[in-house]
Design brief:
alpha/beta, six-stranded mixed beta sheet, four-stranded antiparallel beta sheet, 9 helices, 24% strand, globular, binds adenosine-5'-triphosphate, binds magnesium ion
Amino acid sequence: MTDTLNEPMVRIEGLRKSFGSHEVLRNIDLTVMPGQVVTIIGASGSGKSTLLRCINLLETPDAGHVWFHGKDLAAEHVDVNRLRESIGMVFQGFNLFNNMNVLDNCTLAPVTLKKMNKQEAERTALAHLESVGMGEFAHAHVSTLSGGQKQRVAIARALCMNPDLMLFDEPTSALDPEIVGEVLEVMRALAREGMTMVVVTHEMAFAKSVSDEVVFMDEGIIAEKGSPQKIFTAPEHARTREFLARYLDD
Ligand SMILES: Nc1ncnc2c1ncn2[C@@H]1O[C@H](COP(=O)(O)OP(=O)(O)OP(=O)(O)O)[C@@H](O)[C@H]1O
Ligand SMILES: [Mg+2]
């Protein structure tokens, strides 16, 4: 890509989204710079997933703009498939194909969408599987894996498309507490390598240690954003303090 480091990878302005009469996103502005890790925290229903889904056009905004690499995603000529090739997404549910082995899950999109040859796709996939500690499971059937292993494969699979941006929507929420750490460790490593990431999470310790910026959403608006230092130790708004107090109690 041709970005310089001073140009945002994602710029969101005046974003609004309603479902029926329920305005779920109310005038969101957000900028994500290349290499930044932005985490989004907030109560259930505050609009975190909807915001994430507007970035890769899984949801169509009602108003406002989302630019990716300077390109307005509301423009008619935007190629949604190309866009999604550049943006990896990892969900709470693992979204792997259960009837395939790990390697085939990872090579499917590069071969079918990017027309990569099979050998090259497999080489790439094995390298990414190694990087998430799943190399030795390349030929295992997805159905035999633990939740944490599936989620690490889901991350490797997304990386196989060589994305510029990774979106994570509560990637550890469905996992048993004892295996949350292995997935967060993979995400930490990815952040250290300079991957640009937007992460919706309830893992406050992770958000505190990895984020360049933390965004607190409350009923469809960004109530507060700032450095982890500011948000976790000196939040300005009462709503942020209440939310964090509830979380830190749990
Ligand atoms: N496709 C949809 N149709 C109707 N309402 C929706 C749809 N998607 C989301 N909503 C509603 O929009 C609101 C925000 O949802 P969203 O999933 O963005 O919240 P969230 O912050 O991600 O919550 P959670 O922490 O529970 O995942 C919720 O009230 C939800 O019920
Ligand atoms: Mg959500």
